[in-house]
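User: I need a structural model of Carbonic anhydrase 2 from Paractinoplanes deccanensis for a docking pre-check later this week. Nothing fancy, just the predicted structure tokens so I can convert them on my end. Input:
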Amino acid sequence: MFSDPTAAPGPLRPMARHLDRPTPVEALARLRAGNARFASGAGHPGAVPRGGAHRGPFAVVVGCIDARVPVETVFGQRAGAICVVRSAGHVLDRAVLGSVEFAVTDLQVSLVVVLGHDDCRAVAAAREAVRTGRRPAGARQYLIDQIVPAVPAGGSLDRATRSHTVRTVATLRQAGHLQEALAARRLDVAGAIYRLESGHVEML
Ligand SMILES: [Zn+2]
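Assistant: Understood. Predicted structure tokens for Carbonic anhydrase 2:
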């Protein structure tokens, strides 16, 4: 059964939204608990009641577009609980980074999670580009070019995915507009890998 120890009963008051923010540690615990429910087959907590969420989101997840990784579902979160930004291979560009900054500064989320996953076709395409020296055409070239620097020579796809996820976390940690919240420990940035077979999210 879904339960949330920080849930605020009663009607939303304007200031309550700010007082209700979980710490980064609490936010991560919510996501881990939600993933444990999902991986155990306990099901999804369902949609938000009509009329909208009574609380703002507590985390933002940067994930891949892969249809096998429905982010709210694998973290066991109901609609309204987390923000999700997706691009192939969870590549950061200015729009993705701006979306993360928006979630942190305007929506006051406590946690950013970069979610890689098994069998990522975007990371596989970057490995192929490294192996062959050929780059794909069109805007895909931009995506692959962002992943290639993280791909270790001769390593496995899993190693490349981990490396790319860790590098994405490091890039976010350097983002100028997140520095104040990070320094004040109101925010943390974490990396994770979603395992397709087990349904578990493995924190890095
Ligand atoms: Zn992917």
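Before docking, keep this in mind: Residues 64, 66, 89, 117, 120-122 surround zinc ion (CB under 6 Å).
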